[in-house]
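Ticket reopened. Same input as before:
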Amino acid sequence: MNKRLVFLTPLAIALGLGLILFTAIGKDPTKLETARLNDPIPAFNLKSLADNSQQFSEKDLIGKVSLLNVWATWCPSCRVEHSYLNVLANQGVRIIGLNYKDERVAALTWLEKLGNPYAFTIYDPHGKLGFDLGVYGAPETYLVDQYGVVRFRHVGVVDERIWNQTLKPLVEKYSPTVPKQQSKVQSKPQPKLQTK
Amino acid sequence: MNIQKNGGVLISLIALAFISSSLLANIDLYEFSTEENQLRYRVLTKELRCPKCQNQDIADSNAPIAADMRREVHRLLEEGQDDDSIVSFMVDRFGEFVHYKPQVKPATYLLWYGPWALLGLGVVVIIFLAGRRASNQNKEASEKIDQEDKKTAGKEKPSTLLDQHERVEQLLSRFKDD
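Engineering reply: fixed in the latest deploy. New output:
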């Protein structure tokens, strides 16, 4: 019986360790879970990118599930994801821009040239809100629910795969049940886009 | 003379090449109200980990986010915040990851106590194996003695040291006689 124990104990340890390590396979260690998960968006008071006289605060994020997309013109990956953000915006997804440590003129030119997927863009030249959110590298996309609470953060480019596999189910999960009819109407043109 | 001159230039060029880039990385100059604050700044920026370049502390990193974090550490220090609240300020924003010494809580129990548990397990295994080996050896030894006893059974066999001594003396005296 002792012999069996001698053989089984290392086997059990190896299996347990293997299981723990297995769950980490394929995880990108550079992608950190946000420390702001399930916290309200930190308070801020920043100007609009488009209009210097307009102010935004955390209250402007309340009301509808939205994606808060952190971007800048100096960020090459932001250019990569931009066209897909346009697609999402056309599908009716509410995307709010956080222009992070950027220059106003460059940012406005960028939107003019590449299209503007954002319901509005917060201008954060010193990265103040970015710092409070824990942004460590653009692009980052935060899923904010209708109460202004952070529900998810994606670090890196948002593309069709990330949207369909990760973001879309969460957007649906946190969307209030009443406007479901709306989302049904909006989801109709989606298959057409996918068949392209 | 000319060679010496060139040699001097060469040596200084080589010396230039060895100036560490990390020395140049962190050149933001902050003024501190007290020397203690400066010392605490140095310790804190060594304790905080850069979220972008994950194997560097923020003192050593030249990522923009590390520069922002250094600026905030300086600001909070000068505001009179203590070390714990500065660290938790960063942890609130960037997660437990950002501190090289994570808090002890259920999520980090494995990290803190896992190695000790494994060490304990190792000790148990060693004691178990050693105990088994010892009992095996005892068994083998006693079996050997038993076997020898069986072999020598019937023959005359020295049983005490005194007997052995006498026998040796007998043998020796025989040689002497020769």
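The two ends of chain A are 64 Å apart (CA to CA). The helical segments of chain A are 2-23, 76-90, 104-114, 128-133, 160-174, 180-187, 189-195. Please confirm and we'll close it.
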